[in-house]
Amino acid sequence: MKDDDSLFIDSNILIYAFDKSEAIKHKKAKKLLEKCFGGKSRLATSTQVLSEFFVNTTKKIEKPISQEAAKNIIGKIIEFQAFPVLTIKPNTIESAIATSQKTGVHYWDALIAETMKENNIFEILTENTKHFEKIKEIQAKNPLK
Q1: Residue 94 and residue 32: Cα distance in Å, rounded?
Q2: What is the domain partition of the chain in residue ranges?
Q3: What's 75's DSSP letter?
Q4: Less Cβ around it within 10 Å: N or C end of the chain?
Q5: Residue 50's CB: how many other CB atoms inside 10 A?
Q6: Cα 134 to Cα 48, 99, 113, 120, distances in angstroms
Q7: Under CATH, what is the fold of the domain 3-141?
Q8: Phi, psi at 51, each rounded to 5°
Q9: What angle do CA 88, 13, 60 make, to 5 degrees?
Q10: Which of 98, 10, 85 lies closest to 44 in space, CA to CA?
């Protein structure tokens, strides 16, 4: 699988893979991760998304997981080569600010979009597809429907 075949996974999908409070969404999100770790698909994410995952799964979901469990999950993602973790560069921040100002898209979503574009990834798996509609280069799909 080529690098540009990667799909970017947003924090909400990653969180559902470990949040059992919504069983159907949990099952679908978990299956996405299993396909990736089984070599059947290629996902990518970013340092921003992993940070959001840590905070949300340890503090904000109905049944939080331990910080140690979240740390271990993040470690496995970072170590798995078929699940690249994209880093945010200083110029990415500037591009995200410009995109946010131009489109009215929330800064954090613009930062995800700009990180994706820098890495030639143009499709995001997210529950929040509307957040990316104004960024013409990015196609957002909700895998939980």
Answers
A1: 32
A2: 3-141
A3: H
A4: C
A5: 18
A6: 21, 10, 11, 18
A7: Rossmann fold (3.40.50)
A8: -65, -45
A9: 90
A10: 85
According to DSSP, residue 38 is labeled T
SS3 46: strand
DSSP secondary structure letters along 78-142: HH-TTS-EEPPPHHHHHHHHHHHHHH---HHHHHHHHHHHHTT--EEE-S-GGGGTT-TT-EEE-
Contacts of 98 (CB under 8 A, 6+ apart): none
pTM of the model: 0.94
CB 114 within 8 A of CB 135: no
Give the pLDDT confidence of 36-91 residue by residue, as tens digits: 999 999 999 999 999 999 999 999 999 999 999 999 999 999 999 999 999 999 99
| Measured CA angle at 110 (ends 104, 111), to 5 deg | 150
Instruction: Report the alpha-carbon distance of residue 77 to residue 52 in Å, rounded.
Output: 14
